[in-house]
Amino acid sequence: MAKRKPYDRMNADELAEATAEFDREAIVAPGRPATASERRKFNRVRRKLGRPRIGKGAVRVLVTVERDLLKEADNFAKRNGLKRAQMFAKGLRLVMNEEPVSGSFR
After folding, report:
1. Contact criterion met (CB below 8 Å) for 70 and 77
2. 105 pLDDT above the threshold of 70
3. Is 69 part of any domain?
4. Structurally, how many domains does the chain consist of?
5. pLDDT-derived band at 104, boundaries 50, 70, 90
């Protein structure tokens, strides 16, 4: 097989001849329509996975947290193998299970 001249060194006619195969329309063999189960399977694979659903699902909430506290929380979560959302959820559950002391959480 002869070694082909690099494309950047070809003149216009040589380049047209070397790339002519890419100008032809691709012929695709006819197929059959997908069955209902094949369409369901395809749609399930195509769908983005996202986060696993826990309970009734998740809702995004904008919460303001002091920067140093957030940094401490992130460090704590990292040390304990938690994600930030997991740690906040655990914290909320802890606070809600405590007995309130005269209307205060301290």
Report:
1. no
2. no
3. yes
4. 1
5. low
Q: Going by C-beta distance under 8 Å and a sequence separation of 6 or more, which residues neighbour residue 72? A: none
Handedness of CA 48, 53, 57, 60 (dihedral sign): negative
Choose among 24, 23, 18: nearest CA to 4. Answer: 18
In a domain, 36, yes or no: no
Digit-coded pLDDT (tens) for 49-61: 776 777 787 888 9
Integer Cα distance of 99 and 104 in angstroms: 10
- How far, in Å, CA of 85 to CA of 83, rounded? 5
pTM: predicted TM-score of the whole model, two decimal places: 0.44
